[in-house]
Design goal:
- With 464 residues, this protein is mainly alpha-helical.
- It has 19 helices and 4 strands.
- The longest helix is centred in the last third of the chain and has 32 residues.
- The chain is globular.
- The relative contact order is 0.15.
Length: 464
């Protein structure tokens, strides 16, 4: 079941209900995947368990109601094998007491976190495959992206509302501000900035995709409302990112938005002139957002080198710690214990005693379970990236460019911060990766050409 090529068109050959009544599938998937963004990022041991359970339940539901074609699932097996090998090594390095018995084998610092680590690993794979399965259906991927933008914007609005009215009573569950910087319902400034940047990027790419596919019939077809909603989501996410005053994330977000905007504008140039009444006010609002919310950001840009100095100090110290146990690491969930066990110099201990992450995803993976674990995870990512590159080579649509830009933002931010140490954003990142990966697998099989800016003739690119 899935998509078939019939007379040059891609047709959904799934069950009849999946073509109409199945519209709830991407909605339910997004609500499940994004739930942690509302509850402080699920950033605790119990939160990790909840996140993994939610992801696994969602995957089971998708396997029942919208299974992906077995031939396409086979193309994901190499990545799954690499992840399984990495997980097996991490279990060996993290949990068995025998590690402390042999010569040269360090005892894991936190063997009691083994079950949570295994569950989190399974939950991450489930989130990845949920994205792959959603991307394997006509319309589902586009609707999932639309709903992700909508739901994330609702979370951002809710966080801004809490910030405005205060955190008394039940609202004390959230701490939405720190030192004048907005940190949303996720509970971390830089993570919220990255999520907002991802949403702004997706909203902009979806807007240009809509324009490219609608030709000069945009207003007549009543799609201007949808374009307006994309503009609203873009502006809200961009303003929220500015309100976090996160330096690196905002600079990188603006660069990616310019790239997506230029590429999207080239593909939708045939309809931009009629839309000037929408585009000019949108540009004006962007300028107002820059003037209103970037004051603190500009002040913090003056201290960017000091911030990088602290990061460099962290990376150097934790690199030295990782080299003390290069093959086995210290076990899943061991970082707080590592930080207490290896305090470094007095100056370092004073600066980093509250740090709960290496602030670099590669170092974090190395510390968790050693170099074999790190290399296998990186190999799995590169294998999937290679499949995406081969499947979409020369045929990228603007929404796929938006997904790739969002993934690039996530990875770049995870190299200097804790974005991929928070369960909710790990789930979000893997789901988005799954959407792009699954789409590339389908596209590479059916040989669909990318939209060229003219009205799409292929059913896969007709928005509904």
């Amino acid at each position: 079941m899935g998509n078939e090529v019939v007379a040059g068109r891609v047709i959904d050959t799934g069950p009849k209900w999946s073509k109409g009544g199945g519209n709830w599938i991407p909605v339910g998937a997004v609500l499940a995947i994004s739930s942690g963004m509302l509850f402080n990022g699920y950033n605790s041991a119990s939160g990790q368990a909840i996140s993994a359970i939610v992801n696994c339940v969602l995957l089971i539901v998708l396997l029942v109601v919208a299974p992906l074609d077995a031939c396409r699932m086979k193309r994901t097996v190499p990545v799954l094998v690499l992840i399984a090998l990495a997980s097996a090594w991490a279990v060996f390095a993290s949990g068995f007491p025998v590690l402390g018995a042999g010569p040269g084998l360090p005892r894991p610092f936190t063997p009691d976190f083994l079950e949570i680590g295994v569950l989190s690993q399974i939950g991450g794979v489930a989130a990845l495959y949920c994205g792959v399965m959603i991307a394997g259906r006509l319309r589902f991927r586009q609707r999932a992206i639309d709903w992700l933008i909508m739901v994330a914007c609702l979370y951002l609005i809710f966080g801004l509302a809490i910030r405005a009215v205060g955190t008394d009573g039940l609202l004390s569950f959230w701490t939405v501000e720190r030192d004048g910087r907005f940190q949303g319902t996720i509970g971390n400034v830089n993570v919220t900035a990255a999520v907002a940047g991802v949403i702004a990027t997706l909203a902009l790419s979806q807007l240009f995709l809509l324009l490219a596919q609608s030709s000069h019939h945009l207003l007549r077809r009543g799609l201007a409302i949808r374009a307006g909603l994309y503009c609203f989501g873009f502006l809200l996410a961009l303003g929220t990112a500015f309100a976090t005053a996160s330096r690196f994330t905002n600079v990188l977000t603006m660069i990616l938005l310019i790239v997506v905007g230029v590429l999207g504008g080239l593909r939708a140039r045939h309809v931009l002139r009629p839309l000037l009444p929408i585009l000019i006010p949108t540009g004006a609002v962007v300028l107002l957002l820059v003037a209103r919310f970037t004051g603190l950001l500009v002040e913090r840009l003056d201290t960017i080198w000091g911030g990088m100095g602290l990061r460099t100090m962290l990376w150097g110290h934790y690199h030295d710690v990782a080299r003390l146990s290069p093959l086995y690491g210290y076990g899943w969930g061991s970082f707080p214990t590592i930080n207490g066990h290896f305090p470094g110099t007095i100056q370092f201990a004073q600066a980093a005693w509250t740090v709960n992450s290496a602030h670099n995803i590669l170092l974090q993976l190395w510390l968790n379970a050693g170099l074999p674990y790190l290399l296998l995870i990186v190999a799995a990512f590169l294998w999937g990236a290679r499949q995406v590159g081969n499947g979409l080579a020369g045929k990228w649509t603007i929404d796929e460019i938006g997904l790739a830009a969002a993934i690039g933002l996530i990875i770049a931010c995870s190299m200097i911060d804790i974005l991929l140490d928070v369960p909710a954003t790990i789930t979000l990142a893997l789901f988005i990766m799954g959407l792009l990966w699954g789409d590339a697998i389908v596209r590479s099989e059916v040989g669909i050409a990318a939209a060229t800016g003219e009205p799409a003739q292929d059913e896969r690119f007709v928005r509904r």
